[in-house]
Protein: Citrate synthase
Amino acid sequence: MKNGLDDVVATETTLSDVDGLGGILIIRGRSLDELAGVVSYEELLALLLSDAFDEKPDADGLRRRIGLARQEIFRTIPDAAAPLLTLPVTDAVRALTAQFTDGDDLATALRLIAAPAVFTPALIRLKNGQTPVAPDPSLSHAADILHMLHGRTVTPQEAAALDTYLVTVSDHGMNASTFAARVVASTHAGLVSSVLAAFGALKGPLHGGAPGPVLDMLDAIGTPDNAETWLEKALDDGERLMGFGHRIYRVRDPRADALMQALRRLAGTGNHGAGRFKLAEGVEAAALRILARRKPDRPLKTNVEFYTALLLETLGFPRDSFTSVFAMGRVGGWIAHAREQTQHGRLIRPQSRYTGPRPIKAA
Ligand code: ACO
Structure:
């Protein structure tokens, strides 16, 4: 039995592949460096969802229909959202999505893609005492998310940075949240149930919940000079360094590079967090040195969450929304996997080995 199902192949897929030794992510036959910063999120969705439904809209069709779905979802935001505002943004987004009618069709998929993109900025603004900003369906998905967040015209560089992020995190093999989506899809419960299960799995700090704690770590370290001492003490106290290590990658996560480049491009366009970037580079270098010395048998490298934290902070998202921003991108992968599972898979029903007591048989 494999604790954590390491190396267990749970399914066949045509969607994505993660080569942990080579540091290569392939989505639908293209490597991440052919996609991140090159194609738009809508183009990526057209690629990911090309076999998912009878209808096969191209990227332009998806852009138009997701824009309309954003408008439709915006109208469903309850006037009395107050009870939700006490929750972290990510939990409130999940609660609002749980109201959707389940289904297995493209229309349900488009609503699920629009949901985190609309609910997240609206809830952030409501929590700040601001009025939600209505979507503009003429904008790209990424540009409109930032427009709804900030209530202003966003720069092409900001929109490009978020677009790169959404593409970069859109799919990633049999990660925990995608597996959760496939398990639920295998019961034919529908896309809403599958996506909600995945969303629940994503929020844990060992998966998509790490970027908030990455920023807490940077705040606590404060200056690059302090990194070495702080990180050594955290490891002495038995803590894990957030944003480092991965179940599959034994080399640097290629998504970390894609996001670092997106952040560099953004930092070059103004005063976008240049000091923070320097601190992060110092902390990353110190963490890699220390981890290599203290855990020589386990190569622990930078993962996607480290630069996610910086990119999303620079774009103006608060920490309690980071997981729902991750969901804005990963939802495409969840839907594609859920559909692949229902189309070609069987009910997922593994076994367990019982190690508890047995009943004592009456003589
Ligand atoms: N800092 C310090 N030590 C670590 C770290 C880390 N970030 N990651 C793993 N280790 C150590 C463990 O303590 C363990 O050491 P030991 O054998 O001396 O006890 C060893 O490495 C192996 O740990 P496992 O838990 O078996 O490794 P696993 O493959 O399950 O870990 C995980 C993957 C959960 C991502 C882990 O590296 C981690 O907790 N990282 C920090 C949280 C994080 O960044 N999460 C985001 C992941 S990316 C994503 O899901 C989108």
Notes: Residues 322-344 form the longest helix (23 residues). The chain is about 55% helix and 5% strand.
